[in-house]
């Protein structure tokens, strides 16, 4: 197994869609409130199109992990600046933000996620970012522990109370 970490190419679209769809389905299955769309109800193509636009407009990048020509993981990140005129709470900061990280289940525990994170961190360092943000679904304890193992610390918690039953 020779894993290659490289930047996304348009020919990777199908593999990226597969990864993003499986990630969405995995998170949805963790959700006891059933507020996250399961794969059959999730428009992966539209979501990936939006992600590609966001990457283009926010100086972002997508890296993929490839094994023998097959996309087996991905990471999506963008530049997120803070300190514009409307930001009164925080000090000005140039931050990177990881939007997605996924490695196919058969390839987990092989340090591929770490390689993808390192590639993204290198990218953000080259843009002179001061910090990197990543959001993690609270019930995805494996991902939470993975990020903590990479040196990320908890910064925010938001809570949810449903007012009506699922549709």
Record the SSE blueprint.
Blueprint: E1 3-7, H1 13-30, H2 44-57, E2 61-67, E3 70-82, E4 93-103, H3 112-126, E5 131-134, H4 141-149
Parallel strand pairs: 4-5
Antiparallel strand pairs: 1-2, 2-3, 3-4
Strand content: 15-25%
The level-1 CATH class: Alpha Beta
Low-confidence stretches: none
Going by CATH, what is the homologous superfamily?
A: Gcn5-related N-acetyltransferase (GNAT)
Number of helical runs? 4
Order of strands in the sheet with most strands: 1-2-3-4-5
Number of DSSP strands?
A: 5
What characterizes the major β-sheet? 5 strands, mixed
How many domains? The number is: 1
Q: What's the helix-strand series?
A: EHHEEEHEH
Distance between the termini: 45 Å
What is the helix content?
Answer: 25-40%
Would you write up a description of this structure?
With 167 residues, the protein is of the alpha+beta class. The chain has a single domain, classed as Aminopeptidase, CATH 3.40.630. The protein contains four helices and five strands. The protein has helices spanning 13-30, 44-57, 112-126, 141-149; strands spanning 3-7, 61-67, 70-82, 93-103, 131-134. Strands 1-2-3-4-5 form a five-stranded mixed beta sheet, sandwiched between helices. Strand 2 and strand 3 form a beta hairpin. It starts with a strand and ends in an 18-residue tail after the last helix. The model has no long low-confidence stretch (mean pLDDT 93).
């Amino acid at each position: 197994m020779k894993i290659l970490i490289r930047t996304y190419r348009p020919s990777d679209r199908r593999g990226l869609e597969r990864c993003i769809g499986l990630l969405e389905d995995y998170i949805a299955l963790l959700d006891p409130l059933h507020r996250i769309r399961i794969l059959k109800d999730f428009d992966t193509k539209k979501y990936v199109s939006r992600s590609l636009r966001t990457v283009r407009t926010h100086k972002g990048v997508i890296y993929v992990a490839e094994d023998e020509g097959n996309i087996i993981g991905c990471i999506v990140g963008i530049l997120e600046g803070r300190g514009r005129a409307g930001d009164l709470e925080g000090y000005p900061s140039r931050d990177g933000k990881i939007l997605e990280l996924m490695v196919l289940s058969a390839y987990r525990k092989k340090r591929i996620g770490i390689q993808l994170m390192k590639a993204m961190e290198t990218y953000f360092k080259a843009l002179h970012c001061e910090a990197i943000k990543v959001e993690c679904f609270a019930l995805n304890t494996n991902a939470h522990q993975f990020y903590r193992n990479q040196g990320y610390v908890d910064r925010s918690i938001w809570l949810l109370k449903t007012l009506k039953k699922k549709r």
